[in-house]
What does this fold into?
Amino acid sequence: MFKLSEIKELIKLVDQTSVHELEIENEGARLAIRKPGRTEVVNVQTAAIPHTYLPAQTPAPASAPVATAEQPSAGQQPAGKDLSGLHQIVSPMVGTFYRAPSPDAPSFVNEGDKVHDKTVVCILEAMKLMNPLEAEVKGEIVEVLAQNGQLVEFGQPLFLVKPE
It folds into this structure.
């Protein structure tokens, strides 16, 4: 089983080198990191991971257009926002953003909540693996930039925090 901190470190290492693809298999879990061009793709596959968060969503019809204007591109600042003095909590991977540990549970954090560096602010699901994301900074949540159940990209801003 791979830990989120290990995956983050491997992504950083691949990003800093000329390596374009890395695959690791450990105790039935397989991790593949590919860097086509300048975009990192992380795929994690593992056997029988418990999946407790099943969002109540209806799939969009196949002919429905995909809305992308609302989401900032990976690594870009949210449009029209003055980010001076604010810390962005960004997604360390491609995955599905969840604000709460289960559909009927309260959100981990809301706008106005105080957080510290180890406060879990959301869950990112990648390949049915639930990855808690910590604030990594002490401060106050100013804005939640992603919607519950939304697919997020590597480097996409998820929260704005006013550091203390």
Confidence is low (pLDDT under 50) at residues 45-75. The longest helix spans residues 4-15. Helices lie at 4-15.
